[in-house]
Design goal:
With about 475 residues, the chain is mainly α. About 75% of the residues lie in helices and about 0% in strands. The protein has a single domain, classed as Sodium/glucose cotransporter (Up-down Bundle). It catalyses: L-proline(in) + Na(+)(in) = L-proline(out) + Na(+)(out).
């Protein structure tokens, strides 16, 4: 690797660690600060933190690769995600911010559900926490696999070295600075990602020279390359667009809404977040399409379409700029891992340790346990990531569907339907998760994405069971949820 490229990547790592140290000095005095930054994030940081923790390496590798192979029809997943993110900001963000604070200042999603339904048995918190811990251990492992593969293919290091470097840097700044470190690093990482996704297709277009028509080149390759509907089916479009349904149930994304300093800041954060997402998605689509045309013109074979972002950068960019580009891929990977580790560590701390082990634990003890929990989850993820041949995209798709079906309908109706009961919430979580698992095991995912039947079944279970069961007697300190917008 060129020394200038390595220098740029080293600077990126140093920035992440520096932010971790800053956050450690500023916001780790108690569990509220460590786990939610004291609910004090501004709209810009909240917006980019939600976006960067969402997209992961899929934005830089998977989406451009899919467009490279099949053309514009593969952008339905991007369209679905954008619409889902918009709905998440409108329906979930303001309500979740208000209600998690009103219901005993809930710091985690399982704690909110337990408080929302006055669940003295704690079964909702236990089930929700188990889903988070199990799914996020696998989800985090998929991110580490992506990091290991990046170091192996782009940097020339071994897969194991890539695993250790990725995990060590992420764990260091998350353990040090908690939620504030994760959010600030996500802000920086989101900015790097967007700049890289805008700059690379512009550089590639300029390399074609005057008179060249990328659209004509793509149509010569395949007449359907620039068609949203060409070469695909209605079920395939539904499956791709249905990814947007998953947003309502992703703990590492919606927890950002809980930390913004005020409900009044959410419209601003929504505008920033959706603008960032729209620009980044269009950039990723452009990389895939322009990359396909570029490699066709230059008659250069590309063995792995998902490396189009990397290889274009290697061919067209100065080594220092290439280092920035590769840092953008690392940013996409690390921002998601860090958010997942923090949410899992938070759940282990608040929903297991404080609830069942040490109810009277002091704030210093809770923060320490939170840090140890993050290290433990990272260690499990490292063990799961030892196989470099694991399918990252498949793991991500399954985990996204699992969270979306198990939590999405529960979160939506808990925030918006006062008649919902504890039994309905539990039925929805279990039904959504079971349907997703059965759908995957039966091999039906190739026909219809498992999130669609899982989400629909969970929604139906919540409504039916809630109408058949009684709401618990409202606690004296529990506020009403009607009217919260």
């Amino acid at each position: 690797m060129n020394n200038l490229t390595l220098l740029a990547i080293s600077v990126y790592f140093a920035m992440m660690l520096g932010i971790g140290i800053y956050a450690w000095r500023k916001s780790t005095a108690d569990s509220s600060e460590y786990l939610l930054s004291g609910r004090s994030l501004g709209p810009a940081v909240t917006a980019l933190a939600a976006g960067a923790s969402d997209m992961s390496g899929w934005l830089m590798l998977g989406l451009p690769g899919a467009l490279y192979v099949s053309g514009l029809a593969e952008s339905w997943i991007a369209i679905g995600l954008f619409l889902g993110a918009w709905a998440n900001w409108v329906l979930v963000a303001p309500r979740l911010r208000a209600q998690t604070e009103q219901y005993d200042d809930s710091l985690t999603i399982p704690e909110f559900l337990g408080n929302r339904f006055a669940d003295d048995s704690h079964i909702l918190r236990i089930v929700a926490s188990l889903v988070i811990v199990v799914f996020f251990a696998v989800y985090s492992a998929s991110g580490l696999v992506a990091g290991g593969k990046l170091f192996e293919t782009a940097f020339g290091f071994s897969y194991q070295t890539g695993l250790w470097v990725t995990a060590s840097v992420v764990v260091a700044y998350v353990v040090l600075g908690g939620f504030l470190a994760v959010s600030l690093t996500d802000f920086v990482q989101g900015t790097i990602m967007m700049i890289a996704l805008v700059a690379l297709p512009i550089v590639a277009l300029a390399d074609f020279g005057e008179g060249a028509s990328v659209s004509d080149i793509l149509r010569d390759i395949d007449p359907n390359m620039l068609s949203l509907f060409g070469g695909t089916s209605a079920l395939a479009i539904i499956s791709a667009a249905a990814w947007g349904l998953g947003y309502f149930g992703q703990p590492h994304i919606i927890v950002r809404f809980m930390a913004i300093r005020s409900v009044k800041d959410i419209p601003t954060a929504r505008f920033i977040g959706l603008a960032w997402m729209g620009i980044s998605l269009v950039g990723a689509i452009a990389v895939g399409l322009i990359g396909r045309a570029w490699f066709s013109v230059h008659a250069t074979p590309l063995t792995d379409p998902e490396t189009v972002f990397i290889v274009l950068g290697q061919v067209l960019l100065h080594p220092l700029a290439l280092g920035f580009l590769l840092s953008a891929i690392l940013a996409a990977i690390m921002s998601t891992i860090s958010a997942q580790l923090l949410v899992t560590g938070s759940s282990l701390t608040e929903d297991f340790y404080r609830l069942f082990v040490r109810r009277q634990a002091g704030e210093t003890e809770i923060v320490t346990v939170g840090r140890l929990s993050i290290v433990a989850v990272a260690a499990v993820a490292m063990l799961l990531a030892q196989n470099p041949n694991g399918s990252v995209l498949k793991l991500v798709a399954n985990a996204w569907a699992g969270f979306g079906a198990a939590f999405g309908p529960v979160i939506l109706l808990a925030l918006m339907w006062p008649r919902m009961t504890r039994g309905g919430a539990l039925a929805g979580m279990v039904t959504g998760a079971v349907v997703v698992i059965v759908w995957i095991q039966a091999g039906w995912s190739a026909t219809l994405y498992e999130l669609v039947p899982g989400f629909a079944a969970a929604m139906a279970a919540i409504v039916v069971v809630s109408l058949l069961t009684k709401t618990p007697a409202e606690r004296a300190d529990a506020p009403t949820v009607q009217g919260i917008a």
